[in-house]
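User: I'll paste a sequence; please echo it back and then give the predicted structure.

Assistant: Echoing your sequence first, then the prediction.
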Amino acid sequence: MKRRIDDMNALQAGASHDEALEKEHEESTKVKNIQTVEIGRFEVDTWYFSPFPDEYAQQRKLYICEFTLKYMKRRSTYLAHCEREQSRQPPGQLIYRCDAPPLRRECLAAGMEQPKQLSVFEINGSDSKVYCQCLCLLAKLFLDHKTLYYDVDPFLFYVLCEVGADGGHRIAGYFSKEKTSSEHNNIACILVLPQHQRKGYSKLLIDCAYQISIREAKVGSPEKPLSDLGLLSFRSYWTQILLQTLSDHRGNLSVKEISMMTSITTDDIISTLQSLNLIKYWKGQHVISVSPKIVDEHLKLHPPGTSLRCDPSKLTWQPPAEDALDK
């Protein structure tokens, strides 16, 4: 039995683009033809235009394989594809696996199946072009301001999957990042698919991006501008991380020291602490002004234990050789 997901909440961190792509984007988003997509057991209403090839863009409904992300016009073609398709997971390298937390009561009430595990795959846009292009086209259905569709070579994609009892890895969300970013961005675009909202996956993806930055010994930040929802999500994550870090060190840290420990940029640290009134500008520099008691009071309002996090001990990702990034 199909379940229609009407309440969608897509998270966007933006994407780099030039004027030509921006103009194309503005023109193409005027009309939304594809109304729904069927992906696995879910039928999901779309939000925005996505530049699928013409013969597919004219369809009101598309069928999408939850493993390969290939899109089809007819249900019969889709069912035949599912019968013969052997792949049960994304391409690329498995970099993270953990036990799946219990689903919330409302998710179970909606008929969601409890996954056994969660996994994250790193996929090189140069190595798996078709999969990554299909991923971008799917994501555009739920992201308003996204212009990366086909030129996937400069990007890495990190796909979060739910692992079912049958061993299949079904996509729940993803984030992308440029292989080389002059702006030190560690996230270009991020999305949790509508049917997997309210499971804590956005925080898991954000934390995964920062854990990778920590292993790279680099600071990182999502591409700007952030959507309103994106800013709320990242600000919530930064708040929890910064408060926990200050609590662990009794508040005796500088902005630069926190940045080195967390890989959060100094700008993001300052703006977050300013929103909490925990930082002052004194004699030409920002100084953290906080007592352990005040930190503890804030932690009660933003308890870190309530969010799903990336366990560093389960993250197998290691920095690649420099020449590998050029591929």
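Residues 1-17 have pLDDT under 50 and may be disordered. The chain has two domains: 3-226+309-326, 240-306.
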